[in-house]
Amino acid sequence: MTPADVTIRPSVAADIAAMAGIESAAFSDPWPMSSFRDLLVHPFSRMATATDAGGAVIGYCIMLQAADEAEIVNIATVPWRQRQGIGAQLLDDALGAAAGAGVVALFLEVRESNRAARGLYASRGFFAVGRRRGYYRNPIEDALVLRRDVTASE
Fold it and tell me: Is 141 exposed, middle or buried (0-12, 13-18, 19+ CB in 10 A)?
């Protein structure tokens, strides 16, 4: 189920503060605001923002592409809107963009203990291809490296 009040659009500079706020609320080791600013203008970056009916930023997804591979480097929603399908909408948007850009393989890392995210990724065809020991800090935890093959029919 996807919420009807959510719009996915390209991120703009005015979204950065809200995105950094979501990052701080969603993750124990958040990126600094400068990372969002840098990625907004990065030539291989694609940033998408989820907004509610009132225009408030409620989620984002950041994907980096190199040749025919891409990586979702970050995806998050505001805590009070989690598990409502917004992350799925952002992920589906990224999959469509990846297919349209000629990506054949899409990767991401996920905390091994994050069952909700792992379930979402599995539902979209991602599968484990590796492990990064001690990848996450605060608390220290392994990351599972997931991959999904992308086709032009996404």
Answer: middle
Q: What is the CATH number of the domain that holds 71?
A: 3.40.630.30
> From CA 21, how far away is CA 59, in angstroms rounded?
10
How distant is the alpha carbon of residue 129 from its chain centre?
A: 18
Q: What band does 124 get if pLDDT is binned at 50, 70 and 90?
A: very high
d(CA 142, CA 136): 6
Residue 60, domain member (yes or no):
yes
Question: Tens digits of per-residue pLDDT, 130-150?
Answer: 999 999 888 899 999 999 999
**Whose structure tokens read 């989690």?**
82
State pTM to two decimals.
0.92
Burial 12-22 (b: 16+ CB within 10 A, else e): eeebbebbbeb
